[in-house]
Structure formats: structure tokens, C-alpha cells
Write a structure and sequence with these properties.
This protein is α/β, with parallel strands linked by helices. The protein contains 14 helices and 8 strands. The N and C termini lie far apart (55 Å). The protein binds thiamine diphosphate and magnesium ion. The site of thiamine diphosphate (TPP) has 16 residues, from strand 3 and strand 5. Heterodimer of an alpha and a beta chain.
């Protein structure tokens, strides 16, 4: 839904035809090709992650199918020294930040090493946040630190449409506005919060307008149009970096996949709605735009797919070679200084594992 008082930006229609005067980024052929390549890589990696869950090699995974434009544009715009405070559907932006595919697989395989990013640009980024909306407050904490230190850095946090109903989200908007923090809230409105549709999630016509009550700008973009996402997030990041305060950008997209691999969306979503949404998806839209300008063709597409698949396959091999972590690793990253009670529990866990191994996994405890 839209609201006449809330800006809404779209440059490309679902067929990739310009429908407004194009922004500067549309003239940067090298950038657009990079964005397109990354969207395709993200989609193929996502497919692979779902397949790995289906064959029991990782745990639950939250697909990003259909929402690639949001994370790819955001990742292209953030500076290395900015900090990303993401949620669980952020494969696209994590990959752009330099998080390795095998780290993402380790994370979803329940391995703590998956949140210990090797790439320097991602080193200080937060791990994926599963509790809904709590990350919005963490991002405000990070942004406060930037402001106190006088650093021109931006904290960027992402969340879904459902998350905007949480108190944590609204509290974060409030403090961001009150303290004029260098933070950007990116709302991935994919129309569903598991089985709850956006239409009954909130009485306001837009989620963007929640920022107005906190005293800063909220706006909507077509989240399937990467030119719109890129142009408006660029403005939001620039504002934050220049000390002009926070922005909320609501990106309208659609969750083409299940909520997670533990979900079956056919139980609550009309097939016709999903079919319609496929007409608006972001990858084909940018591809059509590039092709119309003579900057893309079928041969390049096939070449790209082969390159991406090889990259994904190599990452899967690295993931599989990583080996298992000791079970007590689940406790290792919780505290800088260990509370005595946990030290005891850690020891108990270690003993149990040793007993199990001694009995070949047959022992009862
Ligand atoms: C505090 C909290 N409450 C409930 C849940 C269970 N839960 C997981 S995902 C989800 C829906 C979130 O939907 P949305 O914010 O729209 O994000 P999306 O998954 O659609 O990207 C819920 C309620 C949770 N993870 N944390
Ligand atoms: Mg959602």
C-alpha cells in the first residue's frame, strides 16, 4: 500500500522499462553489471543452501529468493567501515560485505565460526539476528558510539515487515530520532511474516510512516527495482554520514520462497498471488533493462551461471571440509569473562560428549 504523504520511488516497471527519469546510477554500466552478477550469484547460492538443507547437510535456512535487489544494492553502497546489523534473511547483503559463502553455510549448520567473518570489511558486522527486531536497538547503540566518537560511519539495520510491529523496532526509531543517530533502517517488506500477511499486520497504509512519529524521514521504494533501492539508500546513507540523522527506507518486495525451509507456504498463500509476484521479481527486471541497452545477452547469461555455480560448488566443498566444532563451542562466544556456573556446565557438556563418543553414540544419559 502507498500513502500520498509518503514518497514512493520506482524507475523500472516490472518489464524493465524505464517509467520515470532515471537516476545517476542507471548510467554506470559497470556498476549495473556488477549488481546484476551479484544478484544471480545470490540466487544460485540461495538455491544451493535450500538443497543442502533438504539433504540434511545444514539446518534450517531462510531463503532470500525474490529479495536480492535490496541486499545487493545496500551492500554495494555501504563503506567498509560502516557496520551492518542484519537479520536472518540477509544472505544478499552479507555476501556483498565480504562474508564468505562457506561462513553462511557454517552459520546455518549451527557452527559458531559462521559468525566470525574473515573479511576485514565484515569483521565488525553483527551476526544474523533471529529474535525479531532486537537488532534495531543494537544498531542504535552502534550509531550512538559513532556519534560520540565523531566518526563519519553509518550503522545499517535490516528487518522484515512483521518486525516493524515490535516494541523494539519502535523504541529504536524513537531513540534514533531523539538523538539524530547515523543509522539507516532498511525494512524488507516482503508482504508476509511467516503466515501473517502485511494487510493485517498494521493499520497504517505504509510502514515507512512509522518514522514520521519519531521525527525523521520514512519513504518507500519498489524493492524489486534495484535502481530505486540503490538511489534511495544512497541518499539515506549520505544523510547519515553527513550527520543529518536517520532514515527509514521501506522496500516493497515479495517473499517468493517459503518463510524458511521449516515452512510450507502453500498451506496459507494463494498460488495465484505467488504467480503474480513472479512477474515483478528483481533479477529478470534488471536483466531486461541491461539487455535493452545492449549490455547483456544469452551467451553472457550462460557464462555467468556457469561461473557462479562453480563458485558456489567450491564454497560448499570448503564448508564440508571445515569439520565439526566441539559441542561446547555453543557457549564459547557468550561472555568475555566466564560466569562460574557456565564453566561448570561447559565441563558437564564436555564429559557427556566424551561418554557418548566412548559408547559409539549409544549411551543413555
Ligand atoms: C522475538 C521473536 N518472536 C517471534 C519469533 C518467531 N518468528 C520468526 S520469523 C517471524 C516473522 C518475521 O516476519 P518479518 O519481520 O516480516 O520478516 P521475514 O521473515 O518475512 O523476512 C517470527 C514471528 C522470533 N524469531 N523472535
Ligand atoms: Mg516479512
Amino acid at each position: 500500500m502507498h500513502d500520498p504523504a509518503i514518497a514512493y520511488t520506482r524507475y523500472l516497471d516490472p518489464d524493465g522499462h524505464p517509467c520515470a527519469e532515471l537516476p545517476a546510477c542507471a548510467e554506470d554500466a559497470e556498476l549495473l553489471e556488477r549488481l546484476y552478477r551479484q544478484m544471480v550469484l545470490t540466487r544460485l547460492f540461495d538455491q544451493k543452501a535450500v538443497a543442502l538443507q533438504r539433504t540434511g547437510r545444514i539446518g534450517t535456512y531462510a531463503p532470500t529468493l525474490g529479495q536480492e535487489a535490496i541486499g545487493v544494492a545496500l551492500g554495494a553502497l555501504m563503506h567498509a567501515e560502516d557496520i551492518l546489523v542484519p537479520y536472518y534473511r540477509d544472505t544478499a547483503v552479507q555476501l556483498m560485505r565480504g562474508v564468505r559463502m562457506e561462513e553462511i553455510l557454517l552459520y546455518w549448520g549451527g557452527d559458531e565460526r559462521g559468525s566470525d567473518f574473515v573479511d576485514p570489511a565484515a569483521k565488525e558486522d553483527f551476526p544474523l539476528c533471529v529474535p525479531i527486531a532486537t537488532q534495531a536497538l543494537h544498531a542504535c547503540g552502534v550509531a550512538s558510539a559513532f556519534k560520540m566518537r565523531g566518526q563519519a560511519r553509518v550503522a545499517v539495520t535490516t528487518c522484515g515487515d512483521g518486525a516493524t510491529s515490535k516494541g523494539d523496532f519502535l523504541e529504536a526509531l524513537n531513540v534514533a530520532g531523539a538523538w539524530q543517530l547515523p543509522v539507516v533502517f532498511v525494512v524488507n517488506n516482503n508482504q508476509w511474516a511467516i503466515s501473517v500477511p502485511r494487510s493485517i499486520q498494521c493499520g497504517a497504509p505504509t510502514l515507512a510512516q512509522k518514522a514520521i512519529g519519531a521525527g525523521f524521514t520514512g519513504e518507500q521504494v519498489d524493492g524489486n527495482d534495484i535502481l530505486a533501492v540503490h538511489a534511495r539508500l544512497q541518499a539515506a546513507l549520505d544523510r547519515a554520514r553527513q550527520g543529518k540523522g536517520p532514515t527509514l527506507v521501506e522496500c516493497l518486495s515479495y517473499r517468493l520462497g517459503d518463510h524458511t525451509t521449516a515452512d510450507d507456504a502453500t498451506r496459507y498463500r494463494p498460488a495465484e498471488e505467488v504467480k503474480q509476484a513472479w512477474q515483478r521479481e528483481p533479477v529478470k527486471r534488471l536483466q531486461a533493462f541491461l539487455a535493452a541497452r545492449g549490455n547483456w545477452d544469452e551467451a553472457r547469461e550462460q557464462d555467468l551461471i556457469a561461473t557462479c555455480q562453480a563458485q558456489v560448488q567450491q564454497a560448499v566443498e570448503r564448508f564440508e571440509k571445515a569439520g565439526e566444532q566441539a559441542p561446547e563451542a555453543i557457549l564459547d562466544y557468550l561472555y568475555a569473562r566466564w560466569p562460574a556456573v557456565l564453566a561448570e556446565q561447559r565441563e558437564m557438556l564436555r564429559e557427556r560428549v566424551a561418554r557418548r563418543q566412548a559408547t559409539g553414540g549409544q549411551g543413555h544419559e
